[in-house]
Automatic annotation (TrEMBL), chains A, B:
Residues 130-327 form the D-glutamate N-acetyltransferase-like C-terminal domain. InterPro entries: DgcN-like, DgcN-like_C, DgcN-like_N, P-loop_NTPase. It comes from Ruegeria profundi. Residues 40-124 form the D-glutamate N-acetyltransferase-like N-terminal domain. PANTHER family: DUF1611 DOMAIN-CONTAINING PROTEIN (PTHR40690:SF1), GLL3100 PROTEIN (PTHR40690). This is EBNA-1 nuclear protein. NCBIfam families: DgcN. Pfam families: DUF1611, DUF1611_N.
Length: 333, 333
């Protein structure tokens, strides 16, 4: 659990895209983003107040979050000067970088001396249990994709935001490093040891109010041979009541697997639902989330209308047209 | 990779059952078992020659394998005396115990001083790749179960033995600690990090001769919510050409999950085959392996005959009736 709110470290980002994680935090949890810290030459700008460490501390920031990708896979000396100062000012540090904060002896030494925490969100910080399969109270929704990276996190985030707006009880449950940094909490599922994957998702989505929805961030795809085991653990550990099918219609093959075709949405529906019913016999497929970013307005609208007619399910692109239809489907259950 | 042959350490085993791992080594790889080492009060006996460390060394043993479960989850001082002597005599140590050899500072210190290796087969020793899904040469067979612990390892071992007897090219591929200790090699899949599960199985079953069969040890079950992700990774990383359905007909519920029923063999067949075809469109279900240990001879025979008639597949209990029918099915492909 990362202490919020954050000061967002943009470092010497070469462009706006490099600050993707910081942008996600600002878009989805603006209340977590007190300000931004930019070094000389930084080409990213979130439109937040530029703050020194002292100013951010006074404004209540608890954690400096590295919201930018680093160059060349190393934490540079220029960055380190700021990170060390931040620890000495009383900030914890949080990072989703491949090269871990905990592998930098100087940062570890200063963190120990100052009593601050280093959060590497790619690495589990909890000893998860083995899943017990016992039915939990409250409701859970999971996005399952025809492929990896088709918008599953975005879909869950957008549904969570819409549900809060409507006064429904909901919690976004992060299962990847971006989601964990955005919300300050979650399970880095791709780094969990095999035997504990499903148990980590049970831990992440415990008993709750009968009318509360956990919106679980999906990962991988049952049809992506590199990561299908992770998806399977989400389906059985998550015990979903509702599945959202997630799809990107213009993709020509499975991500990173040039000889593998995407399954049809019908095949995804039938495969995922049958497996989900092992853990929750009442599970239903309730809607379709389509990433239409590579389609014209006209094509996207026509595609979604045809999908709705063909499959008898509400279909939308939550980024383009809002998550309302998907939330309506949950509300109707 | 553990150096063979072994001296099998039976310690102060309270009964024969406690030496299960040693029995597996002696049954399946007698050529790996030079002798047994028993301490005072040992109640297990494999019928191998009792040897001192020096005698075993002279007989060519390279590794002392802890073939017995320890009491109370700690490696006792009595055991340690022998283990330290073994390191000093030039043996590596190998263990599948939950408490790791590497967590014992005295064993680590002696191993470093003597240049010997400590193999904890529950812990991966390789940095596995992420699965790439590329089709590999040679053939692969995987056992998939209606539940955990229904005889998947035994089935693969028995088929491998039968195939060697017939002069067919085959390799048993261990994915659990017992199998790894028996053969000296394998992947401890339940301890692999999620993102690398399928890749570890690709690594375990590389390109091979066109007429060579890898007999991959199955794990878990697609229908066991605690471990289904592990099974999924085996199906997609293993790219099987042939699936063997494994079943124990008298079980009343899924192992450790009292409210979960076992699926039918038809459901297992259809679910596993559809998922396996994602990685290998030519995959076939070729036979059924039934653990009939809780059935009379008459009941077992009748049950298997009915299964064969109902499902149109060869069905046998490889422990009771041999693995011949299953190997016939592979040979006919």
């Amino acid at each position: 659990m990362i202490e919020t709110p954050y000061l967002l470290f943009l470092g010497d980002a070469p462009d706006q895209l490099a600050a993707k994680v910081a942008i996600g935090i600002k878009d989805w949890r603006p209340e977590n983003a007190v300000g931004q810290y930019r070094m000389d030459g930084c080409k990213a700008d979130l439109g937040l107040t530029d703050m020194s460490l002292t100013e951010a501390k006074e404004a209540g920031a608890k954690t400096l979050v590295i919201g930018v990708a680093n160059r060349g896979g190393v934490i540079s000396q220029e960055w380190k000067k700021v990170l060390v100062m931040a620890l000495e000012e009383g900030f914890d540090l949080a990072s989703g970088l491949h090269n871990l904060l905990r592998d930098e002896p100087d940062l570890v030494a200063v963190a120990e001396a100052t009593g601050r925490k280093l959060h590497d969100v790619r690495v589990p910080e909890v000893d998860y249990p083995i899943a017990n399969g016992i039915k939990r109270k409250g409701k859970r929704c999971l996005g399952v994709g025809t492929d990896c990276s088709v918008g599953k996190m975005y879909t869950a985030m957008a549904m969570d935001a819409e549900m809060r707006k409507r006064g429904m009880k909901s919690t976004f449950r992060a299962t990847g490093q971006t989601g964990i940094l955005i919300t300050g909490d979650g399970v880095p599922l791709d780094a969990v040891i095999a035997d504990f994957m499903a148990g980590s998702i049970e831990w992440l989505t415990p008993d709750n109010d009968d009318d509360h929805w956990d919106l679980i961030e999906g990962q991988g795809s049952l049809f992506h041979v590199s990561f299908s085991g992770v998806t399977m653990a989400l389906i059985h550990g998550g015990q979903p009541d509702a599945l959202i099918l997630c799809h990107e219609p213009t993709r020509e093959h499975m991500r990173g697997l040039p000889t593998y075709q995407l399954p049809s949405l019908e095949t995804l529906r039938d495969t995922a639902l049958a497996l989900a019913k092992v853990a929750n016999p009442d599970c239903q497929v309730v809607g379709i989330s389509v990433n239409t970013q590579h389609m014209s307005d006209e094509d996207a609208t026509a595609y979604l209308a045809k999908l709705e007619a063909d499959m008898g399910l509400p279909a939308t692109d939550p980024f383009r047209f809002g998550a309302g239809k998907l939330v309506d489907a949950l509300a109707a259950m």
